């Protein structure tokens, strides 16, 4: 951690923030301050924007193979430093080391994937237009300087998922990571510099004053693309700010994932899937299963099995051997989980395991299973972002689909059933961008990640992920 730069990264240089401002980074397992990092203000954001704008034209002309090889080298460096990056993430975010190591591999894969996509960019069109007067040539070029904003829950992977396609497409960037987890992003900047990324292509601005930094960039007219991952509430604000200068935007926002278990489901697979969909990252994931709908004929058995598995998980600091569940990110996050559980219990839910905050330091909350949850409970229409599984029962397929879709969000849904017809039918009727069919894990760099409704705009990853950073140019030529 001492080797990680604590300054802003602008124009290829490590710089202090204006007036030497700093902000603390703490350990959620203890609440103790790990270090101080630069706390950028509006002037720092302006310098980062200038660096990105100045570098854009030359970077856009860089050969696709050169961009590809930078990403490939960065991929290899990340993997070679798995243990140190995992420890860094665990220290500032809290997830157990085993999960952090998994995130390192997942994050690195975005760089490998987009290193391969960089050399496959084409316009996709040449020919004579229908009226016979002109030929058409379609090309694609980088959209221009981008503003990338990432959350704290996957501090390395959310960075590579945005930076990878931007580099591959030929875009320069101002990158603002979450204030809770700036160290991983600063380490990533150092890796890309080591991999040969030219000065000014990536500029990292860490700040506790996002409104003072982001709004001037979006309204200044020189940032041409925003890629944001975070809450729907903040996403709405950013979209409004993008409107003034018509900044192109892609957003991965909140989720309220239904997890549906039908009467013919393999319960072993369903419980396994539930553990992944609910407990990955302590439940602090937009893809986390939020509402468990279980057919009444198997609900009791499913609840007992899930409670047994959840109750066996070991809670503690992520750096300790044998720990399965680390702390939540901050006091506000834990307080939200406490309030949602209290509300559900107050409405008649039964606590099968967990449900109470432990004494002592750190932001820990135990894995919790609630059965008999009232549909009017607040956690049914709130993204829990914690290790709480809320179980309701159903009997009718049409009804469970209606209830599952009765939400403004539409990121992901999970369906467990043995029937092929039902698998396809239910998946097609769910109003979500992704479906986990008999699996609790949908995220993969090779697949398009994103949602519908108020869960976002656009897709990240997959073959379409680079499209968010490219625009078409149509060239008309007379036929003579």
Descriptive notes:
The chain has 13 helices and 22 strands. The protein has helices at 42-60, 64-80, 82-93, 97-117, 157-169, 182-194, 210-219, 232-243, 267-279, 299-311, 331-346, 397-405, 420-429, and strands spanning 8-10, 13-15, 22-26, 33-38, 125-128, 134-142, 146-149, 173-176, 202-204, 225-229, 248-252, 257-261, 289-295, 350-353, 368-371, 388-394, 409-410, 412-416, 434-437, 452-453, 456-457, 470-478. The longest helix is centred in the first third of the chain and has 21 residues, at 97-117. By secondary structure, it is of the alpha/beta class. Helix 2 packs antiparallel against helix 4 (97-117), helix 3 crosses helix 4 (97-117) and helix 3 (82-93) packs antiparallel against helix 6. Strand 1 (8-10) and strand 2 form a beta hairpin. The strands form 6 sheets. It has a 7-stranded mixed sheet with strand order 14-15-16-13-12-18-19, sandwiched between helices.
Strand content: 15-25%
Average the pLDDT over all residues and give the rounded result.
97
The main pleated sheet reads as: 7 strands, mixed
Q: How much helix, percentage-wise, in residues?
A: 25-40%
- What's the alpha carbon Rg, rounded to whole Å? 23 Å
Report a brief summary of the structure.
The protein is built from 13 helices and 22 strands. The chain has 480 residues and is an alpha/beta fold.
